[in-house]
Amino acid sequence: MKTYNWVTLGCGVIANQLASAMQQEGRSLYGVANRTYNKAVDFAKKYNISKVYENIQDIFADENVDIIYISTPHNTHSQYLQEALQHGKHILCEKSITLNSKELENAKQLAEKHHLILAEAMTIYHMPLYKKLYNIMKSGCLGNLKMIQMNFGSYKEYDMSNRFFNPSLAGGALLDIGVYALSFIRWFMSVTPNQIVSQVKMAPSGVDEQAGILLMNSTGEMAVVALTLNAKQPKRGMIAFEKGYIEIYEYPRAEKAVITYTENSRQEIIECGQTDNALRYEILDMEQAVSGMGNEMHLDYTSDVMSIMTEIRKTWGLSYPEEQ
Ligand SMILES: NC(=O)c1ccc[n+]([C@@H]2O[C@H](COP(=O)([O-])OP(=O)(O)OC[C@H]3O[C@@H](n4cnc5c(N)ncnc54)[C@H](OP(=O)(O)O)[C@@H]3O)[C@@H](O)[C@H]2O)c1
């Protein structure tokens, strides 16, 4: 397979993880661009990256760039997606990929028009554990899926200016952590939920600090989601089937699940892949997709999740400055 030239747009916490993952693959990123140029220079030194762009726009014009990894805050994604796709670049974009379905639809149309891969960096879709659990579910040994329960809570300092609470940085629990819970649900549900109700508590800054969401699809599969940004919860997913249930902790990058078969209480531990390799799996799946070798990046699931989040925020009356 061809070796692709990756550039990161942004060099914060998650971009450091991508650069490390690339090094673990025995390679380096091809380039880096960042709003604050000096940080890009330091980042390039740290990860042995040969190219530092003075302006973000320069990466779009560089013919040697194959794949752009967008790792800036969510509210900046849409504009960068448009520019990158118009310049023929494949995109792996951090979650949440856009603010809403309209922005995502625009990007999808551009990707289709230019025959490019557009994908959200949603770890759940690339962890080997989830691919294995999907096959177990499809084997029928657990019967039909009935109910999914998801928790995700982070204790973030009550600082209304940081990206978690700041509306100008598209803060709020749904786009920051709810996207993981909903992606997990979409992975296992047979069709996307079409009935959704929720309850929300807003932070003083006006973004969602805490929410409970109840979802059901046309086959009667249901899910319950509990999110908080100001209290710790285990990152726990539980999927209940007719003949047993699956429990997963630390689910965004999970390497282990426990299946309990209800008939005889037998427990089976499933271990597959490694948490530490989460971003390596994303890189490898993305390159396979770009090379046309058929690996699925699940943009259809990303679209379903974005539709759910868009609909929920509409009922809350929560919009971001870019949407007003
Ligand atoms: N941290 C995680 O564990 C994690 C995990 C998964 C996904 N993500 C997602 O990745 C994205 C970035 O998160 P992070 O934790 O890496 O953030 P971070 O450490 O704060 O880094 C943010 C990066 O975006 C740049 N940036 C900020 N505002 C910008 C703007 N208005 N225009 C252009 N560039 C801007 C920053 O540039 P400067 O250097 O100029 O400030 C920096 O390079 C978010 O969408 C987040 O949801 C994060």
Number of strands: 14
Unreliable residue runs = none
Sheet-strand content, in percent, reads 25-35%
How far do the termini sit from each other? 45 Å
Number of helices: 9
CATH homologous group name of the largest domain = Dihydrodipicolinate Reductase, domain 2
* Backbone structural class: alpha/beta
Order of helices and strands: EHEHEHEHEHEHEHEEEEEEEHH
Globally, the shape reads globular
- Can you tell me the CATH class of the largest domain? Alpha Beta
Bound molecules: NADP nicotinamide-adenine-dinucleotide phosphate
What is the CATH-assigned architecture of the largest domain?
A: 2-Layer Sandwich
Textual characterization of the structure:
The chain has 324 residues and is an alpha/beta fold. It folds into two domains: 6-121, 3-Layer(aba) Sandwich (Rossmann fold), CATH 3.40.50; 124-287 and 296-323, Dihydrodipicolinate Reductase, domain 2. Helix content is 35%, strand content 26%. The protein has nine helices and 14 strands. It has helices at residues 13-24, 37-47, 57-61, 74-86, 101-113, 128-139, 173-188, 278-290, 299-316; strands at 6-9, 31-33, 51-52, 67-70, 90-93, 118-120, 145-155, 195-202, 208-216, 222-228, 230-241, 244-249, 256-261, 266-271. The strands form two sheets. An eight-stranded mixed sheet has the order 8-9-10-7-11-12-13-14, covered by helices on one side. The protein has a six-stranded parallel sheet with strand order 3-2-1-4-5-6, sandwiched between helices. Helix 1 (13-24) crosses helix 8 (278-290). The longest helix has 18 residues, at 299-316. It starts with 5 loop residues before the first strand and ends in an 8-residue tail after the last helix. The model has no long low-confidence stretch (mean pLDDT 97). It binds NADP nicotinamide-adenine-dinucleotide phosphate. The site of NADP nicotinamide-adenine-dinucleotide phosphate has 18 residues, from helix 1 and helix 4.
